[in-house]
């Protein structure tokens, strides 16, 4: 049984870290991702598509988004199973009740596990019916023996808490061949007893806590045997890189750090190392590198070079000023506060010396 497994699309996310126009464009691109999912199911000759919850980011979604999801899933030439999660629970105001769904789409709508038998296997699933599900939906479940592959679509957490906290013991006792999970946005897979479990991760990063290639999993499931393959699906990547500016030109160091990435990527560059007395000119660097990428953030994590404090021994107003800032700088481990103190020292010296920073 060939299964295409995805989760955590979070359609209509606000993309708060981006400017409003780009946030709007990213929401549109997320809807377009649904067509890529449909095409992927065809290329992979999937027997079933399992979508393990949080397809929507919340109850308040654009109707065009719900319609786009229904239309895309209807174009998939195999059954599609959807298990709502904590962001998109199935209830009276659920987006899943806004439209009529194509005949090939089965939405699990109850917290009780239900069963659907296909020619090539058996699919189980259950739904969040509220934003929190404090008891395990897998508790007490055990699939009866079968010569067909047995799989389950479920939104769940392996940690104690309010998001369907299933246990490894429950997984091992489930009798399933493949447990298709959602909720964790980083891809991971593991085995418990005879059950292979996988989180595909989110198919598209939405912030700098969701880095790198994102996509879906293709699982080939036989009784007692599972093989998986990761299939990239994202249109843009979030990436965080460091550029150490110690003893060099910041532009050259940034150039080397961002060279592997394309104009479609969303980058955060952390400037590290030891900066000269003038520090780094973030505005000028953003002007130079920003147009090369979809979105670029520069963060100054540099530390002041010793030359910044070299005049602290002077018997002068300048020396007293630097001594006090150096005392505060050495007395804190907070990087943000250190950055503010270093900038204050540079600005103060520029003012005392009558020059522009």
Task: Record keyword descriptors for this entry.
357 residues; single chain; 7 helices; alpha/beta; 6-stranded mixed sheet; Purple Acid Phosphatase, chain A, domain 2
Please provide a brief summary of the model:
The chain has seven helices and 17 strands.
Fold blueprint:
Blueprint: E1 2-6, H1 20-43, E2 48-51, H2 63-74, E3 80-82, E4 105-107, E5 114-117, E6 122-125, E7 150-155, H3 168-172, E8 178-182, E9 188-192, E10 195-199, E11 215-222, E12 225-232, E13 238-244, H4 250-258, E14 266-272, E15 274-275, H5 282-289, E16 295-300, E17 303-304, H6 317-330, H7 335-353
Parallel strand pairs: 1-2, 2-3, 3-4, 6-7, 7-8, 8-10, 13-14, 14-16, 15-17
Antiparallel strand pairs: 1-11, 5-6, 9-10, 11-12
Can you offer a commentary on this structure?
The chain is α/β, with parallel strands linked by helices. The chain has two domains: 2-232, 4-Layer Sandwich (Purple Acid Phosphatase, chain A, domain 2); 238-353, no CATH class. The protein is 25% helix and 24% strand. The chain contains seven helices and 17 strands. The strands form four sheets. The protein has a six-stranded mixed β-sheet, covered by helices on one side. The chain has a six-stranded mixed β-sheet with strand order 5-6-7-8-10-9. A three-stranded parallel β-sheet has the order 13-14-16, with helices on one face. Strand 5 and strand 6 form a beta hairpin. Helix 1 (20-43) runs parallel beside helix 2 (63-74) and helix 6 (317-330) packs antiparallel against helix 7 (335-353). The longest helix is centred in the first third of the chain and has 24 residues, at 20-43. The protein is elongated.
């Amino acid at each position: 049984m060939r299964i295409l497994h995805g989760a955590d699309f979070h359609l209509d996310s606000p993309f708060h870290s981006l400017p409003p126009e780009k946030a709007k464009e990213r929401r549109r691109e997320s809807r377009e991702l649904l067509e890529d999912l449909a095409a992927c199911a065809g290329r992979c000759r999937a027997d079933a598509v399992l979508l393990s919850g949080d397809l929507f980011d919340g109850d308040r979604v654009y109707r065009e988004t719900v319609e786009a999801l229904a239309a895309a899933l209807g174009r998939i030439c195999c059954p599609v199973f959807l298990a709502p999660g904590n962001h998109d629970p199935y209830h009276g105001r659920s987006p899943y009740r806004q439209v009529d769904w194509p005949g090939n789409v089965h939405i699990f709508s109850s917290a009780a596990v239900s069963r659907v038998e296909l020619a090539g296997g058996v699919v189980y699933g259950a739904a969040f019916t509220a934003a929190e599900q404090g008891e395990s939906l897998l508790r007490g479940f055990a699939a009866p023996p079968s010569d067909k592959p047995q799989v389950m679509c479920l939104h769940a957490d392996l940690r104690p808490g309010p998001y369907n906290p299933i246990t490894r013991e429950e997984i091992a006792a489930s009798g399933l061949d493949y447990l298709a999970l959602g909720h964790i946005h980083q891809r991971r897979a593991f085995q418990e007893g005879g059950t292979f479990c996988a989180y595909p991760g989110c198919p598209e990063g939405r912030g700098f806590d969701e880095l790198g290639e994102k996509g879906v999993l293709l699982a080939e499931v036989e009784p007692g045997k599972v093989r998986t393959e990761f299939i990239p699906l994202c249109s843009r990547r979030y990436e965080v890189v460091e550029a150490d500016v110690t003893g060099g030109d910041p532009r050259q160091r940034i150039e080397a750090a961002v060279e592997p990435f394309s104009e479609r990527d969303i980058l955060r560059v952390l400037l590290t190392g030891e900066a000269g007395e003038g520090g780094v000119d973030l505005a000028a660097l953003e002007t130079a590198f920003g147009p090369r990428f979809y979105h670029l953030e520069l963060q100054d994590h540099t530390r002041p070079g010793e030359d910044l404090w070299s005049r602290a021994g002077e018997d002068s107003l300048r020396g007293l000023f630097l001594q006090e800032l150096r005392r505060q700088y050495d007395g804190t481990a907070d990087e943000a506060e250190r950055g503010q103190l270093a900038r204050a020292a540079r600005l103060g010296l520029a003012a005392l010396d009558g020059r522009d920073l």
